[in-house]
Design brief:
Elements: E1 6-8, H1 16-26, H2 34-42, H3 44-59, E2 63-65, E3 80-82, H4 83-89, H5 94-109, E4 120-124, H6 130-137, E5 141-146, H7 149-162, E6 168-172, H8 175-181, E7 186-191, H9 197-207, E8 211-219, H10 226-237, E9 243-247, E10 250-254, E11 262-266
Parallel strand pairs: 1-11, 4-5, 4-7, 5-6, 7-8, 9-11
Antiparallel strand pairs: 2-3, 8-10, 9-10
Bound molecules: S-adenosylmethionine (SAM).
S-adenosylmethionine binds near residues 148 and 174.
């Protein structure tokens, strides 16, 4: 018997921890922590630069010879991929990236004085580096992994254009190998590549020992395929992940000591 998620809007979430997550993901500015709103205004210039870059990528005539270590694609055939198609179909959109930025900002600001530090974030799946740029501009230490050297080189070039290249650690290799060699300590891992159910379960299992205290995993595309849906159900059934939040086709996994077990499917407010 698989565990069921409770559908809730961000407003109806009772647990303060999940409420704070949910409102930064879904609520309008007037319901978001005011320090985050102030920083969002200050960060407008970098957001504009990132979105201008995204627009350029969507018009680009470049191609990348890719090495695909993922679960295949519904959009691409062959190994030569048009950058404009990658930009249109593969990357997280602006709204999702900004929601992640807000959550990370809030978590960073909400740390107790004695725990104050830059949050460390791992993105598994760099692609053109657009979401990486948002994660980095949230003031986090960001490391990002990509299996395809040409794609990683392309992303680095994008960070140079944004002036972010010094801040981002980029590693090239397959997730499996990189996971074995990382010491970890991540506050958040965004698993945004290799959307295959069995591979996802293996990576998430490995990540349990690689998260810092209170760290979490965000898995992309948990309803993308039959295999991914099955993987998500198995993750819900794993007692280790006592708090889960499904949001816009992605799943947040938390292991929170002393928390009441909760599995929430967050209703979406905005059309993204
Ligand atoms: C969906 S894209 C990432 C999008 C990016 N996070 C963004 O929103 O801007 C997934 C990337 O993961 C890489 N990838 C997929 N499976 C991989 C694996 N097993 N090891 C390493 N990289 C992988 C692909 O080459 C692809 O560029």
């Amino acid at each position: 018997m698989f565990k069921k998620e409770k559908r809730k809007s961000w407003r109806s979430v009772q647990s303060p921890f999940i409420f704070n997550l949910a409102r930064h993901l879904e609520a309008g500015s007037r319901y978001v922590d005011e320090r985050v709103v102030a920083d969002e205004v200050e960060s407008n210039k970098i957001f504009k630069n990132i979105e201008n870059l995204r627009a350029d990528l969507k018009r680009s005539t470049d191609t990348i010879a890719v090495e695909d270590h993922g679960a295949g694609s519904r959009v691409f055939k062959g190994s030569s991929r048009k950058v404009r198609k990658i930009a249109k179909h593969v990357l997280q959109g602006e709204r999702v990236a900004k929601s992640l930025w807000k959550v990370l900002k809030f978590w960073g600001m909400d740390l107790e004085e004695k725990d104050k530090r830059q949050l460390s974030v791992l993105e598994m799946g760099t692609s053109l580096g657009v979401t990486t740029a948002y994660l980095s501009s949230a003031g986090c230490d960001v490391e990002t992994w990509e299996g395809c050297q040409n794609t990683a080189d392309f992303a680095r070039n994008n960070w140079i254009k944004l002036g972010l290249e010094e801040k981002i650690v980029s590693k090239v290799g397959k997730f499996e190998g990189l996971l074995k060699s990382t010491k970890g300590g991540w506050d958040m891992v965004f698993l945004d590549g290799h959307h295959d159910g069995e591979a996802t379960l293996r990576y998430v299992e490995e990540l349990k020992s690689k998260l810092g205290k209170g760290g979490c995993v965000l898995v992309d595309d948990v309803v993308w395929s039959k295999g991914m849906k099955m993987a998500w159900r198995q993750l819900l059934d794993d007692p280790y992940w006592n708090v889960t939040v499904r949001w816009r086709g992605k799943g947040w996994l938390f292991h929170i000591g002393g928390a009441v077990e909760q599995h929430i499917a967050l209703s979406c407010v905005f059309k993204f």
